[in-house]
Amino acid sequence: MGHAQKQTRLAAAIAAAFSFAMPLGAQAQAEPPGETNPVQRVVITGSNIKRIESETSDPVVVLRRVDIERSGVSTLAEMLESLPWTTRSLTDIGEGTNFAPGASSVSMRNMGHEATLVLLNGRRIAPYGLADFQDIFTNIDNLPLDAIERIEILKNGASAVYGSDAVAGVINIITRSDYRGLEMGVDIGATLPGGTFGSQAAHLAAGTGDLKTDGYNVLANFELFHRDNVVWRDVLDRASARSRRYIPAGQDQLSIYSRPGNLYDVGQDTVAPLPGCEAGMLQGGLCLYDRYQRFQAQPAADRASLLVSAKAKLTPEVEGFSDVLWSHTRTTYISANPTYSSSDPATFWGNPKTGETLAFYSPALPASHPLNTTGSPAGLVYRFTDADSKIVGEGDNYRLVAGARGGSGVYEWQSALSLLGSSSSATYSGISFSRSGFSRMIGGRTDMGRPDSEVDPDFFNIPGGYRLNQPNSKEVLSTLFPEYGTNGRFTQVAWDAMLTGELGELDAGAVGFAIGVDLRHERFVMKPTDNVMSGDIVGSGNAQTDGQRQHGAVFAELDLPVSEQFEVQVAGRVDKFPGFEAHLSPKLGLRFQPSRELLLRATAETGFRAPNLTEAASSSRAGFASVSDPRRCAPANAYAADLRAQADALPEDDPRRGALTAQAQQVQENECQAGVLNVVNNNPGLKPEVSRSFTVGMMLEPAADTSVSLDYWNISRKDEIGLRGTDAILDQEAALPPDSRIERSPLRDDRTFTTPELQQRYGVTSGPLSRVMTRFENISRTSTDGVDVAARTRFATPLGGVELGLLGTYLISYRPSYGDGSFSPNLAGYYGNSRWKANLTTSLTSGEVVNGIRLNYRSGTSLQAYPDDTAWNAAGCVANFGLDARDCRVRASVTTDYFVTYSGIRNVTASAYVGNLFNQRPAFDRRAVYDNSDVLPALDDVMGRSLRLALNYKFQ
After folding, report:
1. Predicted TM-score (pTM) of this structure
2. Which of 296, 497, 748, 751 is most exposed, with minimal Cβ within 10 Å?
3. Which domains are present in the chain?
């Protein structure tokens, strides 16, 4: 038997072993068997030194264009989300109510999206123009999918090379270059059956010029993407029977908050519909509303991007280069229409300019209203279905890079100037009342902030104002529900320069080096609209930032070939940000290859994240929190008990009885569920978050075109920037930390203990809470470790070439910290933290047809979020949720995807991708339904099988 036959059999045996392995995955595509490329030095993410070997001391995975095409994804976010190392992060699909709607981010190793650095062709892009509360992050929806040549993923930190933010990993998006020709493509996708959750995309790429013969090359790539809106009413019936058992059914899916609404007669304890109820919605003597028609499962999204890259020979030794990126994203979230009820609790918020606490009370419909037939003030329950409620997250992103590079002998240099920026907005319309608009269009109390204030006799009947269940003009609706929101803008000017080459020769080879400098100036401005800043929008919070800074870095790297088998990489970077001393990030990498078949590697390094402009520069966040006041809740309980005792002593028909009972409830709500303005400010004294990480691994190549790698990784981070909870601050009021403050109103303004006698009787010496102020602190830490596995093989069969690839990760431990900075127990295997995540891809190339299968595996988890989570342990599952043992955890899941590509027609490539081929239901997750307030199932419970079709044409 020949040597080639032995290798083929060995490769086939390894492939068979992979196909039966428990963790299933996919691996980067390599060149087809038999094809070879000239040996050349290239730069691999994680180093600035060009090298021949693609396998360095760092664990890097390269996903090529063919991997993206075979994955069947329609966006970069979907591609990155499918990888084993990426963890929970921001997504534009389900984040309409957060601080940064309309954007998606990526996180690795459970370390958050600010710990994963995203690069485009080795350089940074502008972050999203709105901060996610405090986090500034890269919106990966801005990056064009069809322009990508490959994605290089560095699965450990790299602050020694790239600076701040490269703590958990680096994702470097490499776009096409030196392209000549013209091509266009379209793709469409949707779920089957039903055709929902659809998306459509189109792209056009054009390139001209050959750098070697013409002295230039210009490439332009333009993309359009649209995603359909989906509401839960259209897909709810697809949910599994087990999920539907816990969500409303039948009439319970309907709401009493409707239009024209319902009136309740407090004296008679009856509820009756207002006239004009829609046919079929009058049930049980009430006018009802289908609330699921405005529960959104998937928001509509529209995106456009343009990437233009150019290269030109300026001299025989110097090449000029530039690229321009522009993108626009718009995500539209349908929101539930606003409602009104006379029994709603008061809404509290704050005036950002004055710091005043504002309140909004909902009065009853006066007896004089023409629709009120009760003869006395009656409670109104109503839904403003004409408000067209929605949230729009919109953003523009741009980057212009222009530079030059050249070389002489063993030295190469490059330098570039980068101009980058983004502008984003979150616009809310038909969502919240305008305080002044409500008074003008509806009326209300003389003082809407006091429940005892006189009610306008024309309430809900103001001349020229809003009319219940009648057509209302745009002017009326826009006055009542004006647009409001936040606008943000980020700009950066950067200059970098680098020199690489060889310092000399050792016995084992040349010593490679890289040195460089990186200078940046950035500014971030985020401001709410004027009506928010004046306190006119009922219940609104606000976030504002206005900061700028300059920072710079110098870096160096050495590649030392100690022997033919042993190589050492040493790197270091010094970054200087305002507010703290220069920060050094060192790195040591070891690469040992005792034989052609075996490679051993290890890295040790430190990383850091500098406080961003929302945390350290002029910034504030304001919202309203409901808290129990430690100084006033106990006296309030005693006062309420006395009031109830007085009520109980009165005759049943005494009207004072109900008034005393209501007063008792109000007393407790005022102090034990107190609404307080919570203000979070920046902290210029913050330290950077710092991390230490190391990896140890091996790569084995037992046969040609076959490799297996195994890497252990460990990351620990401390001085994480966070907040103390409002309740924790109140508990420390006697000895507050220097960065926190509690403000109280004078006792003379006390609305609960209204007289000095009451204050003395119940021992009240502190006035009502008015504001709690704190700032960002370095207060927490995280530790995590695990093992990554990757494998690939290729071999020939009578049917064609077969390729197999595996990517997977096993989470050994994940320990975030509690508020006091102490580590939590190990959360690996608990809810949301699968131990095993892996993908396996196999493909068969037969002439012009490529068929393939991709398997996606996730191990099961407990429903407990942590070991002491008694609500979801075995006993809690039974006692609280009536679950049996099989539903007290999320079981392991495996889904199967299929793809086929045909290129037998000249210049045409047609592809089809079937996601979730066998229409596999996801593992039942009772906690996901609970987290959706027992109103909605998990989104993947209704998606099922999907089909995506793509067609690409290359013009000749």
Report:
1. 0.90
2. 748
3. 3-232+299-333+393-426+486-618+684-723+777-859+892-955 (2.40.170.20)
